[in-house]
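Note to self: keep these together.
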Amino acid sequence: MADDAKKKANLTGVERSAILLMSVGELEAAEILKLMSPKEVQKIGEAMAVLGNVGREVLDEVLADFCDTVEEQTALGIGNEEYLRSLLVNALGEDKAGNVIDRILMGHNAKGLETLKWMDPRSIAEMIRLEHPQIISIILSYLESDQAAEILSNLPENMRSDVLIRVATLDGIQPSALHELDNMLEQQFSGNSDSLKSAGIGGIKTAANLLNFVDTAVESQLMEDIKGVDEELGQSIQDLMFVFDNLIDVDDRGIQALLREISSENLILALKGADEGVKEKILKNMSKRAGEMLRDDLEAKGPVRLSEVESAQKEILSIARRMSESGEISLGGSGEEFV
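Structure:
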């Protein structure tokens, strides 16, 4: 009983969703998953794989929460574009809302571009590597930053900086051009495309987000290449990037929430190459006993490869950005959020 109560208190939103889907049956769960994005399907699937046995008390609590949430929702069916835009502007502000609403509205119709979200990044890179860099930049701006980063890393080295500069300087795209691109992609996937809304994709923040996900060596080379072409643009991109040492600017509540989402092994590896200020920030947000154990583990770990440290830091930053996007924490550093 005590274990069930502890499990209920520690369940994340993703875990609750996974329990709910497992309780409704395979066919119904499959229909729900069809309506989710690739990233959401992956998160739910991973949660299902590691949940193990779920007690009746936990299941009842999850179902009760779901019923309460459903009862609170309006049945008016308000879904027009103007209402949605106004709602998001009030919630997020004009700049952030514009980016979010364009992605939402475009996602309903962009068949060819949406298909890319389900594809392996290497396959996408191979498919688009002979396209004009401007077309590639639009595609990367449309996709999630982590997927776009993998695609960029698999493109020929001599075109990466050119593509990233075009991402950073992209200031939206005309509906006709986006429609044409979507048609081109959909023809390769066999289908028809409907008309699309104009999308505010691309820009310096998109380029910075994308760079946050590439390997450190690739990131350094790209930044050097970009600054060689346009010093001011390169600096603007760098100013918006969120790196591991920027965690020192995250508030204590945010750090505590982040620590609940990352593994001890990854944390130890990441801190092996971290600034002392970041280490202290992490340690002060742990219990005294947990902090002492972490210090002991860091000392006992011994030397580790730089690539392992960078990989662990990238993974933690990926979790931090995801939590920032969902509103669970607020990232510090440049003061920008990643949307």
